[in-house]
Amino acid sequence: MAKNVLVYIEIDSNKVARVSKEIISHALSNFSDSDINGVVIADEKTVNLALDDLKKCGVKNLYILIDNIFDTHSTCLFSGVLERFILENKPDILLIGATPDGRDLAPRLASKLNIGLTADCTDLQIDGDGKLLATRPTYGGKMMATIISKTVPDFATVRPGAFKYNSEIVHDEPELVYINPDISGLSSLMEIISSENKPKAEDWTCSEIIIAGGLGLKTKENFDLIYKLAELLKAKPAASRAAVEQGWAQQNIQVGQTGNSISPKLYIAFGISGAMQHTVGITNSDKIIAVNIDKDAPIMHLADFAIRDDAVNVINSLIQKLSN
Ligand SMILES: Cc1cc2nc3c(=O)[nH]c(=O)nc-3n(C[C@H](O)[C@H](O)[C@H](O)COP(=O)(O)OP(=O)(O)OC[C@H]3O[C@@H](n4cnc5c(N)ncnc54)[C@H](O)[C@@H]3O)c2cc1C
Predict the structure, then answer these.
(1) pLDDT category of residue 1 using cuts at 50, 70 and 90
(2) Measured from the CB, is residue 258 less than 6 Å from ligand 1?
(3) Boundary-marking domain end, from 160, 179, 198
(4) Which domain holds residue 31?
(5) pTM for this one?
(6) CB distance 294 to ligand 1 below 6 Å
(7) 238 Cβ closer than 6 Å to some ligand 1 atom
């Protein structure tokens, strides 16, 4: 059944945010017969700077809600603007990236529209009746729940990294629809007293090779070998939550439900059991190699290549071979 899908497109550093591209890619390949449209809220300068990227994002119609008041980003104001747009345009499905801004904007919007919201989804499909099947971890990540909303539009936020984005696919340019929205009666409810630009942390989650260590590495000294091997393989290091909790790695390189979702070409897990809270973050990896002494560890069944061996031995031999 054809659906009218609306993706809220976030702009980040004058580009379409990666998560918005991921959502659009997923919708284009999985929501057959549906119209995938986008909506962006920004001031004129931001729109002009991001326009080239916006034109390549793959949506059919791109609604650009433009006003110079939007130079100050405010999720309070944006939720009011979006509410009016949605009531007028009546999409069947509404999707927002679960970025810090998206996580602030979406519940405000759901409350205004009096609709349900399935937050932080890791999968989205459309069933035979045209309803959105929104899947997300539940019960502390022990289960995956697929939620069907009783309200319209179906509304979900999507975890960054949950879907793949292929930058090589060239899309037709969208129909650009510029709108000066009616902002009468809307305010930001917030006053920005001061702001500062923080240098952006490098986004390592889409690196081609990611190698991670877990509790099976036993000591911080052993975990440090992950950094050494990563350097030799031109890969990025990562960790399980248990390794982070041991203080062996920083939380920003944690993979999983309460860490990052990753989509590398190759993921190598050393001494990681493969608890669901971990594997929910690695399902988009093209190939997974697991090194574990326990052949029945869950990750050994999930992996494309399962190596039953001592993780430190394997890392040391790889380091030796690569150093030579
Ligand atoms: C709400 C919630 C959110 C969570 N979020 C996350 C998350 O985002 N990311 C995450 O990772 N976890 C998360 N967890 C924790 C998760 O449930 C697991 O506890 C954690 O992933 C286990 O980490 P681990 O695999 O490193 O350790 P363990 O489960 O202890 O596994 C260690 C593995 O190492 C193997 N091993 C032992 N010795 C060796 C050796 N010499 N060589 C090779 N292998 C060896 C063992 O066989 C075992 O399989 C979360 C939990 C909860 C409740």
Answers:
(1) low
(2) yes
(3) 179
(4) 4-179
(5) 0.86
(6) yes
(7) no
